[in-house]
Amino acid sequence: MAVNAPVHGICRDCLSRASPGERRCKACGSPRVLRHEELGALSIAHIDCDAFYAAVEKRDDPSLRDKPVIIGGGKRGVVSTCCYIARINGVRSAMPMFKALEACPEAVVIKPDMEKYVRVGRQVREMMLALTPLVEPLSIDEAFLDLSGTERLHGAEPAFVLARFARQVEDEIGITVSVGLSYCKFLAKVASDFNKPRGFSVIGRDEALSFLAQQPVTIIWGVGKAFSATLANDGIRTIDQLQRLERADLMRRYGTMGDRLHRLSRGMDTRTVEPRGEAKSVSSETTFDKDIAAFEELVPVLRALSERVSARLKKAEIAGRTVVLKLKTADFRIRTRNRQLGDPTRLADRIFHTGLDMLKRETDGTRFRLLGIGVSDLTDVAKADPPDLVDRLSHKRALAEGAIDSLREKYGREAVETGYTFGRAKKARPQREDD
């Protein structure tokens, strides 16, 4: 992490250069002066928006500023995210909603508005791409950046550029980010988790081994609850214990994971920042307040979700060839079914009827807590939905759907409903949407 070495620093508030030994910025008086002996030599960053969904909601409603906010929905749902005030009270992401409200009964619960979050996330992403083309998104609100060789472009070292970026996001978008800076992706990701929110931590090469030695094994990617328990049973709880073991011994015990443990425990990570292309799938899903087994109750939900997916495909001017149905049973078992179409589609009607056929095969009395529909194998919209010589009514249905889209664009989504969803679409409000 950042240390107060006797080197020049950067004020993260006013971006002035701080002289060695200054505890506060002389220009603005801020104590947020960034220093590190390797500050000018590091260029791999991980940027993470702080409590992203909750931060966007607080930005849009200032009355929420000092209140605990949970983003989630329904008694059967889970916490998508929560603000730091709620976290102090014991609320955590992925926690069942009823437990979250037990921990923080005064919390304000807001259903996710994914369209808004995606829009803000894209704003942040565009600002990242202005720094470097080497941006590797991990999710809607975090990404790796490689700023190697950008000093001439920006007239400053990566650390200064990142500090300026963090302030710009705060000033222009109204949310905050935390930054991790290092020589590799693993340690950049680790660094960004320190000192949240509005953090900026640095881990250099010279300190990597000693820094890691003090950390628990769970800081390593892939070491979750189950595997950490396995390691604990073998007497391994901290990274310094891993550092004392040979690679061959670790691989003999844990296979390929043993090789990862060997490398990352020593700060060895050669992965490069890989810019990603467009989304590979578009989907929408919802968790029910009560488990549903009846086919006739699932149909309107499937239709509403299909319309949401279709709307996003049309907005992005893309289409998909494979329709994917997702179900989660009452005992949390996930069923995924997919069917490839003859031609790509972006029409709600085709998505729905394809999903409906798959859904019929699954409704055998099983009670479901979640239903989702999506499309994958995305392609350009020009290839989508050619005339069907067998199903001649498909062209009429496509025209009708276009007319509905026009009315909804003019008067709002609630202006027109199909017979499948009329008066019943409320159940289909998704708690999470995945690109």
How many domains? The number is 4
CATH H-level superfamily title of the largest domain: DNA polymerase, Y-family, little finger domain
Poorly predicted runs: 1-6, 425-435
Indicate the overall shape: globular
Number of strands: 15
Q: Outline of this structure?
A:
The chain has 435 residues and is of the alpha+beta class. The protein contains 15 helices and 15 strands.
Commentary on this structure:
- The protein has a 5-stranded mixed sheet. Strands 12-15-13-14 form a 4-stranded antiparallel sheet, with helices on one face.
- The chain is globular.
- Helix 11 (247-254) packs antiparallel against helix 12 (256-264) and helix 13 runs antiparallel to helix 14.
- It is α+β, with helices and mostly antiparallel strands and 435 residues long.
- A hairpin with a 2-residue loop joins strand 8 (135-139) and strand 9.
- It contains 15 helices and 15 strands.
- Helices cover 36% and strands 21% of the residues.
- Mean pLDDT is 87; it is low at 1-6 and 425-435.
- The protein starts with 8 loop residues before the first strand and ends in a 24-residue tail after the last helix.
- The protein has helices spanning 52-60, 84-88, 97-103, 114-129, 151-154, 158-172, 185-192, 208-213, 225-233, 239-243, 247-254, 256-264, 295-316, 348-362, 393-411; strands at 9-11, 17-18, 33-34, 44-49, 69-72, 79-82, 108-110, 135-139, 142-146, 177-182, 200-202, 281-292, 318-329, 334-345, 368-380.
- The chain folds into 4 domains: 9-49 and 118-206, Alpha-Beta Plaits (2-Layer Sandwich), CATH 3.30.70.270; 52-115, MutS, DNA mismatch repair protein, domain I (3-Layer(aba) Sandwich); 209-264, DNA polymerase, domain 1 (Orthogonal Bundle); 281-428, DNA polymerase, Y-family, little finger domain (Dna Ligase, domain 1), CATH 3.30.1490.100.
